[in-house]
Amino acid sequence: MSPEEAIKKLMEGNRRYVTDQLEHPNRNQESREAVRATQTPFAIILGCSDSRVSPEIVFDQGIGDLFVVRVAGNVVGPVELDSVDFAAVYLNAAVILVLGHENCGAVQAVLNRNTQDIPAIAEKIGPAIKNIAPGLPDTVKEAVKANVRHVIDQLKHSRLLSELIAQKKIDIIGGYYNLSTGEVEPVR
What is the CATH number of the domain that holds 102? Predict the structure, then answer.
């Protein structure tokens, strides 16, 4: 699958989710058997651990379709990067989607300087949102998007991923999940 086809498949799944026309693909015994020996996900989702944002549901995908790496604030450190690299290199996923979301608690904590319980996560988010002015109407939304863009930039500087991008085998994109509508909008 090409990166463009993978992005289209994700967004079609999100459209089904938003319009309540779910197909629930690859969620039966036959699907479980098909992926028992190996996996071939078409997309990697680097998303937040937030319980309200489940990628397989949000994109109407099933078993074996997505390789999901979840961590509060959808940040990337050595462990997350190794996981993404593994799926890109060995599982041949065609796209990486960095998925932020509305009202992200980790981003809000950094904005509010209330990070004593999440120092490692705050250290990753801080540089991404340092130029966001607190207290404006869309401060949290803009901070979440800035964090998504920062993580995309980090991933694009990975030696393995940059080689795959140059070969047009993978693309890295960003998304912002709206909790009330269920829609994932592109982050550029």
Answer: 3.40.1050.10
